[in-house]
Amino acid sequence: MARRMMSGTGRVSIFPLIHFWPDVVGAVAYTTTGQFGIDAVVGYLAVPEVPDVHLMDVAARHSPNPTEWVLCTGWSSRVVPKPGTLDLRDAEWELEVDGSSEPAKTIYGHGGLHVGRLTLKDPEKPDVAAAGQDYTLALARQVLSHRGIASVDA
Fold first, then answer.
1. Is pTM beyond 0.85 here?
2. pLDDT on residue 4
3. Is residue 153 pLDDT above 50, yes or no?
4. Which residues contact 94 (CB under 8 A, 6 or more apart)?
5. Cα 23 from Cα 153, distance rounded (Å)
6. N or C: which end of the chain has fewer CB atoms below 10 A?
């Protein structure tokens, strides 16, 4: 079955997230879409050495309200950035959607959440898909390098 894709342009915050305790860390991005950013987009950045971050599974291990947990994690990682967090002001992105949900009530200004694998377009080669994958991987490795993870050195 074909996966649903969505895309946009805007501010993207990329941060490290422990998704298997104690030492499996992935790179996750938070952005918004829709009028006034009503929908949050939280996606993992693919890194070959790191298992994919299935955000709703991670959230379910931490909270009985996984949608709200993912929204809180994305929003708070932007507001209170962790060491190594990257903040891209005007980035083009594409999300391969794993799932979408709505919180019980609007939280952090968001009425919807979309999660999945996020890829950023390379600003120097926006029409080359492979360049976007390489650019995304380089950003993810930069974020993860601040966590002292030797296996993701470029």
1. yes
2. 95
3. no
4. 5, 6, 7, 118, 119, 121, 132
5. 16
6. N
